[in-house]
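Late entry, evening session. Most of the bench is empty. Finally got around to the prediction I had been postponing all week. Sequence below, unchanged from the version circulated by S.P.
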Amino acid sequence: MMTDLSSQVVAVTGASSGIGEATALACARAGAAVALAARRSDRIEALAARITEEGGRAIALPTDVGEESQARDFVERTHSELGRLDVLVNNAGVMLLGPIESAPTEEWRRMIHANVFGVLYCTHAALPLMREQGSGHIVNVSSVAGRVARAGSGVYNLTKFGVGAFSESLRQEGVAMGVRVTTIEPGAVATELAAHNRPEVLEQMAKRFAGVTPLAAEDVAGAILYAIGQPANVSVNEVLVRPSGQGG
């Protein structure tokens, strides 16, 4: 059955590529008006134009979600310009792997900035709006790394385990507001996410996932669309989705 998001407004962070871009397109094609957040303004403006050309409605709002004022402005402008806020997809994130010893600590700050503060600030801005309308859905994109810790991904694990814990607490708080919460935990996905790692890390990743056909961004977007397309009495709390060939 096709998901129908007509009359709904969906805000997607990290919409300039990968899972965020695919999710925005999927939601727009299901009838939602979408708000696009990312730092790369040219990318989200092009995506908004593509959605409009397909007959949808989209606004591009350049945003660094790890900056509280920018995150709040994104959420509030979505609400004011599109009329409401039904779904917030906290997708923006950074994955910089490698051993903890001798790691460039700036990589840690970048991950916490986007993966933790980005989720917190956007959610904090969205909750009063959703409470007022008596409904809403917050989707936090985590990772298999939010369930399984491994050597070489300690700080990324920290951020994604944190997203999982925050999401469960948020889910419990959201019940009284009519706000549903879903955590999406993808395994290996063919996106730009890994490309920002140092060469030695990329080499290790290539060895680990040799022979694995990764998920496409559209596969994860499909999982998100499934969760937000459920009837109001159904709350899909977690979706863990790996490539069929990924063992761990």
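Two things to note before I forget:
The mean pLDDT is 94.
Helices lie at 18-29, 41-53, 68-82, 105-133, 154-174, 199-208, 217-228.
Will write this up properly tomorrow.
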